[in-house]
Amino acid sequence: MILGVSIPAFFVAMFIENPKLRTLAFLLVGFLLLHGLYHATAVLSSYYDIDFLEFLSLSVAQPLSYLVLALFAYKLYKLGDTSHERLRLQLH
User: Fold this and answer.
1) Separation CA 40–CA 17 (nearest Å)
2) Residue 79 gets which letter from DSSP?
3) Per residue in 79-90, pLDDT tens?
4) Domain residue spans in the chain?
C-alpha cells in the first residue's frame, strides 16, 4: 500500500518547479519507498520465516527510512527558517 502511495507523489514531485520544494518532495517519496520496503520485508519475513528478510527490514530499511524522514524534517525546518528571515527583513 505504501509503495503505491509513492508513485503519485513521485509524479507530482517531477512537476514542481521550485528546486527547494522539489527536493522536499523527492525526500518524501524516498521515505515512502523505504518505509514501504520495510513493511513489505517485515510481512514477508514473518510469513515465510526468512531471517535475511527480517534483518533487511529491521536493520536496513527501517533505519534508512527514519534517516530520510529526519532529513526531510530538517530540510523543511531550514526552508521555513529562511523564509521567516526573508519575511522579517522585508517588514523592516
Assistant:
1) 32
2) H
3) 877 655 555 555
4) 2-91
